[in-house]
Amino acid sequence: MSQTSSLSGAAGTQASGTPAPDPRRWLTLAVVALAQLMVVLDATVVNIALPAAQKDLGFTNGERQWIVTAYSLAFGSLLLLGGRMSDLIGRKRAFIIGLIGFAAASALGGAAGSFGMLVGARALQGAFGALLAPTALSVLTTTFTIAKERARAFGVFGAIAGAGGAIGLLLGGFLTQDLSWRWNLYINVVIAVVAVIGAIVFVHTPVRQGARPKLDVPGTILVSAALFSLVYGFSNAETDGWNSPLTWGFLAAAGVLIVVFVLWQRRASHPLLPLHIVLDRNRGAAYSSVTIAGAGMFGIFLFLTYYLEEILRFDPIKTGVSFLPMIAMLVLAAQLSTNIFVPRFGPKIMVPFGMILATIGMFLLTRLGVDSHYAGNILPALLVMGFGMGSIMPASIQTATLGVDREHAGVASAMVNTSQQVGGSIGTALLNTIAATAVTSYLAAHKPTGTSAAAIAQLTANAAVHSYTTAYWYGAAFFAFGAILSALLFRRRGHGGSHTAAPGEIQHAHSAKTPVEPAEPVIAH
């Protein structure tokens, strides 16, 4: 791509006719990364605060799951609408609205004086997060138009998407232990203020080409109801079990609604989710990989957190610090992947490679016992897992938004978050249910060696470790399946796709018929 033409403002063009790079693009990346970190870490930072919040507000064990579920329900069911809204009202405007709304909901939750107020605030957080998360990714997609720079930007974004959960554990432990559980929510206000100022100054609003797209109201209702039913069904399975009629009722409803949604999208004049976005083989593989990675990752954060605190007796801060080596390895792998490995090998090699590493990491975790040590037993697994996730996420996220028309960048970005959210919901429900069943089976098959409190405690610890091990085996199976699926679905290098954009570029609605000058490959087809 030609680099010799001068910029004519932020919206200048190069000699090739494609938009010139925005001179503020790296500052835009910093702002987007900050917003993404806020959304991702909020999914885990509140988990650490739950026991303190429960003691303060006095809600029951049965009610506490709604603090998490209210967020995931609103977030998961409104993601595609949020992505489309960013296409309709403009990404900069949607980004700022999402930040302000998320901050306001966080402040409301931090000041909550009752269980109902906290649940409502968490639902509002999820709603504004559903607008903010896909908008952040689409801003990145449309800001970076040079292949090598776009790869580096997505490397940062992918690292944050993968590491945010572990950062949330660390931050949650510090805030809860040294300040108050309420600061796990108030902290978002501080982050959002900085991000809003940065967005106003640095985020560029591209000139809209062509007619303003219209909102597909029936499609919005159908997909929101389908995603709500899907997330609620799996959340209900986590609490009431797989024998609950409510669980299967909502999952069946989700299946029916998804089928109706697809049929409607085939005939709608302004579809919410143009089917070519997900039917493209490479993008479909990317969305599947993000879903599987999201499901498998919960086997680490959820059960390893319990293991560290309940079995090894780590305090919340020490538990968070324990995940830092994994974060460091993830960031390192993400940068190596996007700058060296993905341009050379493409996602067909890198995503299965990451899945295989994640499978090995899960296998190492299955070897943990009640007397295991962090340095010798846990740390190697975390390092392998970190490198694996750092290989999966950047390649998948880049491919998921590659070659999409500018007018559909928001909804394509929303599908990344939807895939991760659905994967996380499925992973949580399945692994929790499997672990609970494993505890019951272990206790039924083993009797305590005595009647003393120590003997009973030992049996309980053994049962817990057995349940975690069982969950890790299933997590390993998730990743092994992901390795096979991604190896089969991703195209080999040099095989054309359904779009003609050069690797690392996005198509623009006003130049969809104009040949794009080849760029240095970033994502192989």
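The record above closes out task 2.4. Task 2.5 opens with a second protein, given below.
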Amino acid sequence: MITLHDSGVFLVNGVPCADAPLSRQEGRRNTMAWNILQAHSVSGDPEQLQIRFDALVSHDITYVGIIQQARASGMKSFPVPYALTNCHNSLCAVGGTINEDDHVFGLSAAKKYGGIYVPANQSVIHSYAREQLSSCGGMILGSDSHTRYGALGTMAVGEGGPELAKQLLKNTWDVPYPKVVLVYLKGTPRRGIGPHDIAIALVKATFASGFVNNCVLEFAGPGIASLPIDFRNGIDVMTTETTCLSSIWETDEVTEEFYRTHCRPEAFRPLHPGPCAWYDKYIEVDLDQAESMIALPFHPSNAWTIHEFLENAPEILAQVEADAQARFPKAHVKLMDKIHDGGVWADQGVIAGCAGGLFDNITEAADILRGGSCGNGYFSLDVYPTSVPVSLELTRIGATTDLLECGAVIKPSFCGPCFGAGDVPANNGLSLRHTTRNFPNREGSKPAEGQFAGVCLMDARSIAATARAGGRITAATDVDYTPVSHPYHFDAGVYERRVYNGFGRPDPSVELILGPNITDWPQMPPMSRHLLVQLAAVLHDSVTTTDELIPSGETSSYRSNPLRLAEFTLSRREPAYVGRTKDAAALEAQRRAGEAPEALKAVLDRVGDGQALLEQTQFGSCVFANRPGDGSAREQAASCQKVLGGLANICYEFATKRYRSNCINWGMMPFTLDEGTPFPYEPGDCVFVPDVREAILSGKEDFPAQVIRKDGTVEPLMLHVRGLTEDERQILLDGCLMNYYANRA
């Protein structure tokens, strides 16, 4: 179904070709990506972009910290439309008043600075952005990794909060011009195939090899015409899981109808590659050949066709079980008992969020379930429409009735099932979800406490087919049903009556409402001459996700209190981390107070005059991981390390640009190693980087270092920090982005 071409390709009049009359350099200027990026860049250098976005979006795990950073740096009003949605911690079930305190803060900030406030359960972040902020040829920056609106002609990027703070201060998002990859769609999906089937197959084909890492995916080809707009959006939002940078699609009359339906016809314009466009790589997707897919724990790329999975379930589930047991030794993982009575049985189905809760997904699920039953056994089905307008239309056409009659539960718009807040299965439960991720802990269990549950990703259609079978995993292509096409009617009055839209009307007299859990960031000192870091966590997993660095779920309730949130850092992956880094921070506090901690002096004695070095050497903790940062854009994955005294990450490669940017914006050195360099070191070993400040000032990219092991032996280690911009170098020297702005106020 999917073929990868690692060599470049021309698209000539809509047809992929090896040769063309233009040069590659000329051809790359004919991509949609080139034209949109250059139109938004103010750098004057087409190879080094400095982007100003048309709109910003954040949810209630991230917007408090972003606004606190920006106002501490001198922000007086929001310069572009900025939507603050309340779709992540909407349950308000943990921590007393603190979740709703953040929502009240958000409304007061929207009034004070001229923002858009979307109350809890009105819409998930990406649904609101699609409905109200997208535009053909526009660009949107969001503090959520699934900020993807390419199918609507909008290039969108998910980044950590500091990058949004930069935009609020009228600064830029800086990035080298990326590679652009053609995704050429042809054919038509058959009945029972949904957007998640295509998306999971695409992630499987590209993720492990990093085929499109930090690239822009440009979707073109005749297959687009066969896809309704919800189908396109459902594929597009999952491009995040390929680790690409952004996405953009050709637009057509289907796109135009979306904007007309949502009362914004002026936001549409045709977008197509030029007559001869050059792409760095090429992915061919044959929609005719698509199969119903399932992604097994613990990543969307761990994927199989449902038929392959069912035929080989004992071997596949045994491997997942072994993987889970290795990750979570305190849990007693049992998945093999899902195989019985001639099938494989799940315990739960969930259709939710920016990927699953779309109108077409839910109506077709209702078509499959109409007249059937989810049964009265262990299996349950929960459905979360992505916005109130979608929920209202589902009610008006009767789809909600059909689902309720079969035993499904309809819930409000909420992102919880996608990040582990809500719908937590029972111990050893297996949940099937049309959501974006199935990373460890994304289902809300606590394996470190002996709990375990697993999530498989499936399309809403196959989840409905499974629900009709009482939980027996079933491909929708194996079910006889008739899909009914329903034209979508958007009720704009829902948002007009409930959403506060103050863009362009800031009111400086409004006082921010600060609940007791909303606290300021602790002071962060500038970088010293030398750097000494102690390894507080050493992770040799192939990839370390941001959900492992700072778990989601109920921990996110403390998002506005940096010190309390930091207590959860790596808690479900390396529970000893917090204690280790606090011990290191205590020694640094003594050093800064003018004392001479003997433990630090003894380490520095191994590389020089310990007493002399002590005065000029900043000490803190460090995380080593092979490839950290896949997953969520939440800046807390980095800021929590910094709050606890973290000063560096060491890795072979950062999984995503956004996590590396988060590390830099919080003043942590983003060190990398050459591939193949051994790293046999353990927590407690230290890494000394001499003259690090001068090296950054002078633009050096190689940092000769020394590892001082716990037994006193010293070994050389070459570290690198490549590709820093001038601003990024200064942010690191100042200690963090907030210091950078404060020093220039």
